[in-house]
TrEMBL record:
Pfam families: Zn_ribbon_21. This is CPXCG motif-containing cysteine-rich protein. It comes from Billgrantia aerodenitrificans. InterPro entries: zinc_ribbon_bacterial.
Length: 69
């Protein structure tokens, strides 16, 4: 993980709708991972799409554990 590539994004939990800041490591490129909601502890799917040209975030999707992202 590269500290200089950590970006924080404001998101809402797909379960409890509480807002929280989600740190993303864009140096990993496009990837899919899981994070637990800091409020309700539900497992959240996180899909991160990063541009291969400039390394910038193209899209960020969050979903419940039973959704297909």
């Amino acid at each position: 993980m590269h500290e200089e590539r950590l970006d924080s994004h404001s998101v809402h939990c797909p379960y409890c709708s509480m807002p929280f800041d989600l740190p993303l490591d864009l140096s990993q490129g496009s990837h899919q991972t899981w994070e637990d909601c800091p409020f309700c502890c539900a497992p959240i799917q996180v899909r991160v799409d990063v541009s291969p040209m400039d390394g910038e975030l193209e899209s960020l999707m969050l979903g419940r554990d039973d959704e297909v992202l």
